[in-house]
Amino acid sequence: MANVSGRDLGAVVADIEQVLDEIVLPQGAHIELSGQFESAASATRTLLALGFIVLVGMFLLLRQAFRSSNDAVLVMINLPLAFAMGEPGSEIQAPMAIVILCGLTSSTVLNMLVVAAIYLKVTRDGWGIASLCARWQRYRSGTALDSQADAAAA
Fold this sequence. Notes:
- Helix content is 75%, strand content 0%.
- By secondary structure, it is mostly helical.
- Helix 2 packs across helix 3.
């Protein structure tokens, strides 16, 4: 048993294998390195194989979705670039927040000013509820809208 604190297990095993290559063993004898290093090497091989299978599966799904191998390859090439920037989508969060805040502000201002102005216009011109309902009924029936008919309805 060996303690490899402060060093990479792979580097320690490489050093051990270099020393073991110089040792001449009797016929039929061999040295095996096992334990944690063997488990790590097996897990690495498994992860590499599964990673390759996943990449092929992703490519096939993208090819099916885009109906183009060129587009699928383009997406596959750009995936590492997207993840290299940190959290995916973070490059749009700050600009999107500005757009949302400006949209909310302009919407609030429009509601405060325009709705009030329309209300004042409607009430000053004598467009009460009865007048508006009469105008709507005449519009729906196809009767021409004129100011005398509006005056008669009020």
